Every structure is written in structure tokens, then in C-alpha cells.
Amino acid sequence: MEIKKLLGDNIIIEPESVERVNEHGLEIPDSGQNESNTGFIRVMGEGRKIIGEHRRHPFYVNLGDRVIYNSFAGETIGFDGNDNCRMLAEEDILAVLED
Length: 99
Known about the structure:
Elements: E1 10-15, E2 38-44, E3 66-69, E4 75-79, E5 82-89, E6 93-97
Antiparallel strand pairs: 1-2, 1-5, 2-3, 3-6, 4-5
């Protein structure tokens, strides 16, 4: 999917990959895996418009930040060759993680 421009405070996150092998070397099937709710910010909109003013509210996150997000929020989309990216609003990001 080709995205021309994100609107408002929407953000695209590329989820971190989930380990498919446990600590004992056994492969975990897809049905037994928990979906990751951490990832990296890849694309950001322009920010939420402030009503009555001609400016936008700045983001609290930056491109490339590693974040924890609400796993039930947003939509799963295909982006840049990855079919598991998430598009969600900034308010659905719960924390920014340190490297």
C-alpha cells in the first residue's frame, strides 16, 4: 500500500518481531504466540489540529522511537513490505522505551 500522507495525529508503527523459538529450542506455532505490542515509529502525521488556532499540537514521540502501544488500538495495515504494521493515534502509545 502506498500512503501519500498521514492525517492528524496518526502514526504507523512497525512491530518488533516475536521470537518463534523458546528458550529450549522448540519452535512455537503461530497459534501459540502472543502478538508483540512494542515497535518502532516509522511514519507520523502532522499532529492534531488545535481548534480555533492555525497550528497543530506537537507530538510527544519522534520517528524511530521504540514504543509500547495498546495492542487493541488502531488498524493492521501493509506498509513498506511488512503486512503487520499498525496505524494508530498518538494517544494509543503508552510509553517510549530506552534503547
